[in-house]
Amino acid sequence: MPDRIVLLAHCFLNSQAKIKGSPDIADLSEKILNILIKYKCGIIQLPCPELLHGGLARWGQTKYQYDSVFFRRHCEKIAEVIVNQAEEYQRHHIPLGPIIGVEGSPSCGVTLTCDGLWGGELSESHSLFTKIKEVDIINKQGVFMEVLQSSLSRRSIYLDQIGILESEPADSLGQLMNYLSRNELLGGKMDE
Ligand code: SF4
């Protein structure tokens, strides 16, 4: 029986959902799973908001592009089944969290997201490479993480979040391990 339930970004269990051409994260996924197994975590796989919105042939986009009313409503809709599960586990006093996100993602970033004033007709753009270089990594959450957090808080559920930085994962994996070992020492109990 798991000691706690974590909410894991979809692509750490299924990297086929990522944008075509993304770096291979098989090794990283294995490390994350080994940590979660070691600390007896049950795993809720979060939905991939971009896959369910733009499919597998989507382009990489910035937070500026995803930050629309329409994408936010989409995120709310797909988050609901997760929030319902979280509420049920909380009701039964089963320790929950953290939410494990993907740093740098415009949707699933926890403290880092990629942003930039992208958009428009590609074939008419004579400065495409300049535009591409304008993308920036900034200290903000991705859209899906923002929506998920506020949907959870509307039900009085407050979960910690840890973002995994795929390009240099050592620190974030250490953070995840520290979090789980600390909570293991605390007995992983929630207040009745
Ligand atoms: S939207 Fe989130 S789950 Fe989907 S590929 Fe990007 S980081 Fe992974």
Fill in the keyword field for this structure.
Putative secreted protein; two-stranded antiparallel ribbon; binds iron/sulfur cluster; alpha/beta; TudS-rel; globular; four-stranded parallel beta sheet; 192 residues
Describe this structure in words.
This protein has one domain (4-185). Helix 1 runs parallel beside helix 7 (170-185) and helix 4 packs across helix 6 (143-154). The protein is globular. The chain has helices at 26-38, 51-54, 63-66, 69-91, 128-133, 143-154, 170-185; strands spanning 4-8, 41-45, 96-102, 113-115, 136-138, 161-164. The mean pLDDT is 94. The two termini are 20 Å apart. The protein has 192 residues and is an alpha/beta fold. The strands form two sheets. It has a four-stranded parallel β-sheet, sandwiched between helices. Bound molecules: iron/sulfur cluster. The site of iron/sulfur cluster (SF4) has 13 residues, from loops. This is Putative secreted protein. InterPro entries: TudS-rel.
Overall helicity: 40-55%
SSE class: alpha/beta
Count helical runs: 7
Strand content is 5-15%
Bound molecules: iron/sulfur cluster
Q: Show unreliable segments.
A: none
Query: Compute the gyration radius: what is it?
Result: 17 Å
Strand elements, count: 6
* Secondary-structure element series: EHEHHHEEHEHEH
Largest sheet: 4 strands, parallel
The best one-word shape is globular
Total discrete domains: 1
Distance between the ends: 20 Å
> How would you write the strand order of the largest sheet?
2-1-3-6
Estimate the mean pLDDT confidence. 94
Protein name: Putative secreted protein
